[in-house]
Design brief:
The complex is a heterotrimer of chains A (300), B (258) and C (351). Chain A is 77% helix and 2% strand. Chain A is mainly alpha-helical and 300 residues long. In chain A, helix 11 packs antiparallel against helix 14. The relative contact order of chain A is 0.11. By secondary structure, chain B is mostly helical. In chain B, helix 3 packs antiparallel against helix 8 (170-199) and helix 8 (170-199) runs antiparallel to helix 11. Chain B is globular. The model of chain B has no long low-confidence stretch (mean pLDDT 89). The chains are: A mainly alpha (300), B mainly alpha (258), C alpha+beta (351). The structure holds adenosine-5'-triphosphate (ATP) and magnesium ion. Residues 14, 17, 19, 39-45, 193 of chain C line the site of adenosine-5'-triphosphate.
Chain lengths: 300, 258, 351
């Protein structure tokens, strides 16, 4: 009797429309599952397989040797650490820059706020690769910056730091990333009720105290979104290091790319991808818990 | 003017230079004999003429436009369906869906690129423009869906109810009321999708076959044959002129929809 | 009389919230029926159930005798004027009004004629090409009403259509609405929280409280014979005293004996007596009234046509009185000793 009733309930209009509405998201579901989940899952499986370097068939399964590679070759492990370090520093510097710009536009620019905001966003359209190419010409021992400095007699020989190296990778990533981060921070700053700030001033707080005690805490959601936006891609970055990193500036992503492309070691590439995936998961999990879905949406 | 304002302006000026100076230099050097300073034989159209002998470069821009257009069309349709569903209906498994939707947004491109291409190669699918489009749709769907969700939420639901009350069925209501009112949001979503596809190199580098999009073309030429850098600088002007047009279009649409 | 709309024991729950609880009523053809109640009492929810946007959790809704349970909003013979008006901002006035007719595939020249007829009805001729954003509040209101009316619905549902208008415009629109109602003759179900609007326009009023209907009746019945303290208070405010009924009089603590009309005979026991403030006389000397008490003016509010007094009576009760201004004896000042009184037919017993 109760089974019969629940069976009937299942086909009530309510459930019916919930299933019908599901059709609207079905294409997206399928796309994400087929183009994202299944491939990522297959990589997960691949990471436990040992492939023959010649025939690329599975010779051993399951094995942990691909994962062990990271610990056997200390330069791989060091590369991962270096990448983490670069991701953290790039995140810190680009969020800081973006914060300064966002703060300025939100609180100091009175007219045409959105035009100023747009000015900083304009480089999106130029494409990332083109900006990297530009930086390639700017940097290097015979690059534009060194040439100009030499020409004006400010230096007598090229500055090494502005060659193709890890510092340049940091510089270029920071310069290309910070414009992307202005918007989420700006949105959260704009939302702050100005009366709160006036109240704080009114209570005798210095501008710095007001900033630290009121403005900054209230803008944190935007900052978290920005951190998420920059940290994760930087962990997987491999284009900028290839363009301006020279020999000393390559990152973990270059390793994966090379294993995929040149070394034909997909199994190792898969294991390293999984390492990257785990780090991403942890970062997303930590930040997601603090910002949630709604905040992420609002800052778009 | 206070001291802090001056400091702000100095920092802002520095950041603006950081953003625009390299691009300006790129354009400048495209008119130079070499792609380093000092200027020699400036200005010269030498590299622009040379560029004509590189049809692959021109084609790359064409392919980029093509990939971005198809991606945009598809991602916007997915976005309208998904956004409407998220904002207006209570479909089964909504929470799971939103979680799923965010995944491609927070995964490094290298993971998606490697996973998708290794998987497709195993399935016997070779890299091609179509594969790039498949990948680009994946990375743009979350953006179009989320942008449109918030637009649908902002749209007063009683307008849709009013249409139904006046006799319009679900579909007519959508076509005659919802869609026209959501159009500015659709435009914003479309431009966002276009930019993401147009910009991308990290994902496309995995998925591109012999037909390369512009960023992939620049990347691979730069890696394999650095002596052709001057050609790339000339090619950049073409890309930039598209970019400026696109930027203005975006600004105009933002203005209208605001 | 033909019944256009009937609700039978309708209940609506949103999760744990009971928005409408066991509501039943009938609306006759051509009637101006009002749902009156404070904010959040479930008025909009009832309209939304009649127009089909919400499904009753329990109970049944009939329109012209037909059960509506499985009829979607776009197939119901009702049209709704939304609380927010919901005029389509991307269409002009003509396209807004023609929206429903176009869907019914009515020939273009007939649409034109009917739209024109409607614009004449609300005295906005020549407004066809106007954008919605170019209309004033009152004009928007009228367009919203005819956009619904043009479809010749069996029942027109109006959800506080005058809510956002200022007082002056509101009074004009009340007159306008009455005229429109008279000219088209359609059945109206009108939702409002303003008792003045409801009393002025309605043939019948249902007073609601927290999802329940407290009383249904004509404006006069509702006003003169409220069946509860809530209704008495909601309709224009009143003085309510609690007491015990015995032999044509009610014994009230802190006041004394109040005589009441014999026909509202009740069994002995605890009752409420309501006396409308405007039925109470005030003066230095009063006679020939059934109930007279002495007291002192504590508050006096001059309101133009009338003065509202609060009088503290000798036995400790306080009562409000609305008197014409200026009365025969002028306006009483605070602290003045006065007498107040009323006839026993104006002492209403409520249960
Ligand atoms: N979709 C809903 N979900 C949950 N609760 C709802 C919903 N719609 C209405 N309610 C609740 O039902 C009750 C009645 O709401 P309703 O809108 O019918 O009130 P109302 O009488 O029209 O009020 P007002 O005069 O303010 O318009 C309220 O407590 C409201 O919070
Ligand atoms: Mg309401």
């Amino acid at each position: 009797m109760s089974i019969k009733k629940s069976f009937r309930n299942f086909f009530t209009a309510q459930t019916n429309s919930r299933l019908k509405d599901l059709l609207l998201v079905l294409p997206t579901y399928l796309w994400i599952i087929i183009v994202f989940f299944i491939p990522v899952f297959s990589v997960l499986i691949l990471s436990f397989a040992e492939l023959s370097p010649v025939t690329r068939t599975v010779v051993n399964f399951p094995v942990l040797s691909n994962y062990a590679k990271l610990f056997i070759r200390t330069d791989y492990a060091r590369l991962l650490l270096r990448t983490f370090f670069i991701a953290v520093t790039v995140t810190a510097s680009s969020v800081l820059f973006a914060y300064v710009v966002a703060y300025f536009i939100a609180f100091r620019v009175l007219k045409n706020k959105y035009t100023v905001l747009f000015l900083f966003q304009a480089p999106y359209f130029a494409t990332y690769m083109l900006i990297l190419l530009a930086w390639r010409l700017m940097l290097g021992s015979t690059g534009v910056i060194n040439s100009l400095l030499l020409y004006f007699g400010l230096i007598s020989e090229p500055i090494k730091l502005l060659g193709y190296n890890l510092f340049s990778v940091w510089l270029v990533l920071t310069a290309t990333w910070f414009p992307w981060l202005i918007l989420p921070i700006f949105v959260s700053l704009e939302k702050i009720d100005r009366v709160l700030l006036e109240a704080s001033d009114d209570l005798g707080a210095s501008p710095i105290t007001t900033f630290l005690k009121v403005t900054f805490p209230l803008s944190l959601p935007g900052v978290f979104v920005a951190v998420l936006f920059v940290f994760i891609p930087t962990m997987g970055e491999f284009i900028a290091p290839a363009v301006v990193g020279g020999r000393t500036g390559i990152l973990f992503g270059n390793l994966i790319y090379d294993f995929f492309l040149k070394g034909f070691r997909w199994d190792v590439a898969a294991a390293f991808t999984v390492y990257l995936l785990i780090i991403t998961f942890i970062a997303v999990f930590l930040l997601y818990r603090r910002i949630g879905f709604r905040k992420l949406m609002e800052s778009l | 003017m206070t001291k802090s304002s001056i400091m702000f302006i100095v920092v802002l000026g520095f950041l603006l230079i950081l953003t625009f100076f390299p691009i300006a230099i790129l354009l400048l050097l495209s008119l130079n004999e070499t792609s380093t300073l000092p200027l020699r034989n400036f200005p010269t159209l030498k590299w622009y003429i040379e560029l004509l002998r590189f049809p692959a470069a021109i084609n790359a821009v064409k392919y980029s436009l093509m990939v971005a257009s198809v991606t945009t069309g598809a991602a916007v349709i997915f976005g309208i369906c998904g956004g409407y569903a998220l904002a207006r209906t209570n479909f089964a498994g909504k929470k799971i869906f939103t979680g799923l939707l965010l995944m491609p947004m927070v995964t490094p491109y290298i993971i998606m690129g490697f996973s998708l291409m290794s998987f497709l190669l195993k399935m016997g699918v070779n890299p091609s423009l179509i594969v790039i489009i498949i990948g680009h749709i994946l990375i743009t769907i979350p953006y179009t869906t989320l942008v449109l969700t918030s637009r649908f939420i902002a749209l007063d639901i009683s307008l849709e109810e009013a249409a139904m009350d006046l006799g319009a069925g679900k579909f007519t209501t959508f076509r005659k009321v919802t869609l026209p009112l959501i159009m500015p949001g659709v435009a914003v979503a479309a431009i966002l999708a276009f930019i993401i596809s147009w910009e991308d190199v990290a994902l496309a580098v995995f998925l591109a076959g012999t037909e390369q999009t512009a960023p992939v073309y620049i990347y691979s030429l730069l890696m394999k044959l650095p002596k052709f850098v001057p050609i790339l600088t000339a090619m950049s002007s073409i890309i930039l002129s598209f970019a400026i047009g696109l930027a203005f279009l975006m600004r105009m649409i933002e203005r209208i929809s605001a | 009389m033909k019944i256009d709309v009937e609700l039978k024991n309708v209940t609506k729950k949103f999760g744990d919230v009971v928005a409408v609880s066991d509501v039943s009523f009938q609306v006759e053809k051509g009637q101006f029926f009002s749902l009156l109640g404070p904010s959040g009492c479930g008025k909009t929810t009832i309209l939304r159930m009649i127009s089909g946007f919400e499904k009753p959790t329990e109970g049944e809704i009939l329109i012209e005798g037909e059960p509506m349970a499985d009829v979607p909003p776009f197939k119901r013979p009702t049209n709704l004027v939304f609380q927010s008006l919901a005029l389509f901002p991307h269409l002009n006035v003509y396209e807004n009004i023609a929206f429903g007719l176009k869907i019914k595939k009515i020939p273009e020249n007939e649409i034109k004629a009917r739209v024109k007829e409607m614009l004449d009805l609300v005295r906005l001729p020549g407004y066809e090409k106007r954008k919605i954003s170019q209309l004033s509040g009152g004009e928007k209101q009228r367009i919203a009403i005819v956009r619904a009316l043009v479809n010749k619905p069996t029942v027109l549902l109006l959800d506080e259509p005058l809510g956002p208008l200022d007082l002056k415009l509101r009074e004009e629109m009340i007159v306008e609405l009455k005229r429109i109602k008279r000219e088209v003759g359609t059945t109206f179900i009108y939702v409002t929280h303003d008792q003045g609007e409801a009393l002025t326009m309605s043939d019948k009023i249902a007073v609601m409280k927290a999802g329940k209907i407290m009383q249904i009746g004509s404006p006069i019945e509702i006003y003169e014979q409220p069946n509860s303290e809530f209704v008495a208070n909601f309709i224009g405010g009143t003085n309510v005293f609690k007491g015990r009924y015995e032999n044509g009089a009610v014994e009230v603590d802190n006041l004394g004996k109040i005589t009441v009309t014999p026909e509202c005979q009740l069994s002995k026991g605890s009752v409420l007596v309501s006396i409308k403030p405007e039925k109470i006389f005030i003066g230095r000397k009063l006679n020939a009234l059934d109930n007279i008490f002495a007291g002192e003016v504590k508050e006096a509010y001059y309101q133009g046509r009338v003065v509202t007094y609060r009088v503290l009576l000798e036995n400790g009760s306080s009562i409000s009185v609305v008197a014409p201004s200026p009365g025969m004896e002028g306006i009483f000042g605070i602290g003045e000793k006065v007498k107040i009184g009323w006839n026993k037919k104006d002492s209403k017993l409520i249960t």
